[in-house]
Amino acid sequence: MNEPAKSGATPVVGTGKRILVIDGSPQGQGFCRALGETYVIGARSQGHVVRQLRLADLRFDPVLRGGYEHDQRLEVDLLDAQRQIHWAEHLVFVYPVWWGGLPALLKGFIDRVFLPGFAFRLRGQTRIAEQLLSGRSAELLVTLDTPSWHFRWLQGAPAHRQMIRSTLRFCGIRTRRVHEFTPIRGSSEERRQDWLRRAEQLGAKA
Q1: What are phi and psi of 174, to 5 degrees?
Q2: Is the pLDDT of residue 9 over 60?
Q3: Ramachandran angles phi, psi of 39, nearest 5°
Q4: Stretch (H or E) spanning 83
Q5: For residue range 120-177, what is the model confidence (pLDDT) as tens digits?
Q6: Which residues are in the Flavodoxin-like fold domain (predicted)?
Q7: CA atoms lying within 13 Å on the CB side of residue 173
Q8: In three state form, how does the secondary structure of 142-183 look?
Q9: How many Cα atoms occupy the beta-carbon half-sphere of 54 within 13 Å?
Q10: How far apart are CA 71 and CA 79, in angstroms?
Q11: Contacting residues for 44 by C-beta, under 8 A, at least 6 apart
Q12: Which end of the chain is more exposed for a tag (fewer CB within 10 A), N or C?
């Protein structure tokens, strides 16, 4: 039911953007993975160079155990993730919203990877952040069970504000678009196929 929509698009020959798709869902075969894969199909059809990180497949401790006051050795997968982020011009985060926020795996990934000296640097007594990931853009593909209007107007869209303002913007990354796929629970096969086609179109417009 969650297989990516098939595409007969022929890849465009040429130099495209360097895109990194980060699947932040802990569900290895869930709908987020299908969304990410169809986005990749669309982006590659337009000549973009796309890499993928599936957090569920990485091996790392998601807990920043000593806070920012103590060094915590980065696992091999996290060192590679930092290299991939440096490589990318455009970051695409695909993840579910649970309890109004990010899933713990994605939050832990951010805690461990977006570190001082990599994503930002605090300068002087004012502690104003120097943005070390400037020049990159981001796009969010988010699944929810809560209706969009309820999440935005009654809950205040806390997950979006956390990612866009408190995390990405703080590091210098400009969020271009947020795409919601909701409600997932109880959605029909036809509806999900429509969403997958939409994800492919979004990739083509990256």
Answers
A1: -95, 120
A2: no
A3: -60, -45
A4: helix 76-87
A5: 998 876 667 899 999 999 999 999 998 888 888 888 889 999 999 999 999 999 999 9
A6: 17-201
A7: 27
A8: EECCCCHHHHHHHCCCHHHHHHHHHHHHHHCCEEEEEEEECC
A9: 15
A10: 14
A11: 11, 50, 203
A12: N
Let me know: does 64 contact 112? Beta carbons within 8 Å. Answer: yes
Tokens of 108: 């832990």
**Which one, of 152, 154, 147, lies nearest residue 164 by Cα?**
152
Lowest mean pLDDT among 52-61, 96-105, 140-149, 186-195: 140-149
Query: CATH assignment of 18-204?
Result: 3.40.50.360
**Strand blocks (E) in the chain:** 18-23, 49-54, 90-96, 120-123, 128-131, 137-143, 174-181
Of 92, 75, 88, the C-alpha closest to 35 is 92
- Between the alpha carbon of residue 37 and those of residues 23, 40, 89, 110, the distances in Å are 9, 5, 19, 22
Handedness of CA 167, 173, 174, 180 (dihedral sign): negative
The count of C-alpha atoms lying within 13 angstroms of the C-alpha of 76, restricted to the half-sphere facing its C-beta, is 2
Can you list the pairs that 116-120 forms with residues at least 24 positions away whose Cβ atoms lie under 8 Å? Answer: 116/68, 118/82, 119/170, 119/171, 120/170, 120/171, 120/172
Residue-wise burial string across 51-87, b where 16 or more C-beta atoms lie within 10 A, e elsewhere: ebbbbeebebebeeeeeeeeebebeebbeebbebbee
What 3-state class would DSSP assign to 39? Answer: helix
- Could you give the CA distance from residue 203 to residue 129 in angstroms, rounded to a whole number? 32
